[in-house]
Amino acid sequence: MKIATFNINGIKARIGALTDWLDEAQPDVVLCQEIKSVDEAFPREPFEDRGYNVETHGQKGFNGVAILSKLPLEDVTRGLPGDDSDEQARWIEATVVGDSHAVRLCGLYLPNGNPVEFDAEGKPLRDGKYGYKLDWMDRLEARARALMAAEMPAMMAGDYNVIPQAEDAAKPQSWETDALYLPQTRAAFRRILNLGFTEAFRARVQGPGHYSFWDYQAGAWNRNNGIRIDHLLLTPQAADLMTDCVIDKEVRGREKPSDHVPVWVTLAA
Known about the structure:
6-stranded mixed β-sheet, about 270 residues, alpha+beta, 12 strands, about 25% strand
């Protein structure tokens, strides 16, 4: 079972880039972020024509997540539990049924959190957009605990907007006051990992120089000035099934690309 996460940065603007990659990579399941489309306007036909079931949780103009799956999907739910007032479309989950295992897949688009406001001592304030990010991560941790308690193969994958370590950025010093790299952000991410999750890519590949996002500005792609913020977190039951995890870096150099690239894992499921 080949499962990918891909922040597509606008499904309508990037539909050619996505379908070309689908034809080439042949993933069984894709968790998409930033579809930037309401459910009714999502261009389903190109994916259904390729044999994918389509489930969306959209929002006009920004955010939005989707699941494309060649395998049957069951028990689809939308929205991260814990705050009924949260109207941002950032979470979708479903059970995908493989040949030998069912896997609970959670697709997420974690809030960016910028701009961050700081107090007089230079400490970030937990309010505004950064407060929303940290609150969302608290809710994510609660859902992660529930997934662990269920003791089934499960994965939380998507654009986390978290740079976990210095080696995950080409120039970590330039991110020191950014919401993606603040100590509070990285600590919240570690708390989730420490519940017993495996961060798929780092379980397979070590060392610096591996990125999943390059900004459109300032020649970031040409200079390989990237960051790694797209992650796949696996419960122990899913980690036992993992056979590989790869960042499809070269996709970023194609025509009309997203600023993110796909990251995929294969499970013996």
